[in-house]
Amino acid sequence: MPLEPIDLLHLGSERVIGVYLVETPEGPALFDCGPATCFDRLREAVDLQEVRHLLLSHIHLDHAGAAGHVVAANPQIRVHVSEVGAPHVVDPSRLVASARRLYGDELDRLYGEPQPVPQENVQVIWDVAAGLKSFATPGHASHHASYLLDDGALLAGDATGVRILPGEHVVPHAPPPEIDLEAWERTFDDILRHQPEELALIHFGVVSGVEEVAEHVQRTRDYLAAWAERVRGGMGEDEFVAAARADLEASEGEGAGAYLRAAPFNQSYLGLERYWRKKRERDAEATAST
Predict the structure, then answer these.
(1) Are 220 and 161 in contact (CB under 8 A)?
(2) Distance (Å, rounded) from C-alpha 136 to C-alpha 126?
């Protein structure tokens, strides 16, 4: 089947959150499922009774918040998730508490309430999931994973950033608390080593062509380095957001809105500021112990 995103029309907006229905050696699979607030739309767009697997890139609520709802609709579905993420789909309470610190009172409106996934439905990812090659792609989140289809398409999740196709701008969404710049650099290398012919982005669309994929990954890498250097150099939140927004609007103009809904820039500031602060603390502790 052609690789096309299913638009979940998050909060009534187009091209913010998409998921993918794909064929695997072990039957039809859904790549990510979106938040609980989009479950009714997902159920309208996909016959969940035909789905055999749910392949989760990671457990953030915009990607996996409806996982329990999906399994409740079809208890035969196997949920593939990283070892670190697995306990949080079985019991999402800590995940919700962490997300609420970031989103506050907006959390319920944005993403709704996840339901637990029964333990017996959870399959921890190793090298293969539903017959597909799967591998760790940390950086955006420590538990992020991607999947490679037999035709060379990579189900990339957030590992290669946010790009609202057909737009050209790419932003490396970097929310707290798990941003890891060194791990993300290794992820970019790992992805390119697999030479994917397509990238399936949850936010939003498909990048097609080996050269186009490589260019997209390089732009994500370059912009992540630019953002990281801005924060490391002492840029404050308001200045960071203004600079990122100016870059976006110069590239996308009226198309900037979907980017801002999918990947709010203040979250990336908070994630990168935390990353550098924790790194300085670790470096200071290491110096003190020598």
Answers:
(1) yes
(2) 9
SS3 letters for 177-210?
Answer: CCCCHHHHHHHHHHHHHCCCCEEEECCCEEEECH
Buried b (16+ CB within 10 A) or exposed e, 83-98: ebbbebbbebeebbeb
pTM strictly above 0.90: yes
d(CA 120, CA 140): 28
* CA separation for the pair 212, 218 (Å, rounded): 10
Distance in angstroms (rounded) separating the CA atoms of residues 143 and 133: 16
| Residue in 187, 255, 254, 253 with CA at minimum distance from that of residue 220 | 187
Query: Along the 290 residues of the chain, how does pLDDT read in single tens digits?
Result: 679 999 999 999 999 999 999 999 999 999 999 999 999 999 999 999 999 999 999 999 999 999 999 999 999 999 999 999 999 999 999 889 888 888 888 898 999 999 999 999 999 998 999 999 999 999 999 999 999 999 999 999 999 999 999 999 999 999 988 899 999 999 999 999 999 999 999 999 999 999 999 999 999 999 999 999 999 999 999 999 999 999 999 988 778 889 999 999 999 999 999 999 999 988 887 777 76
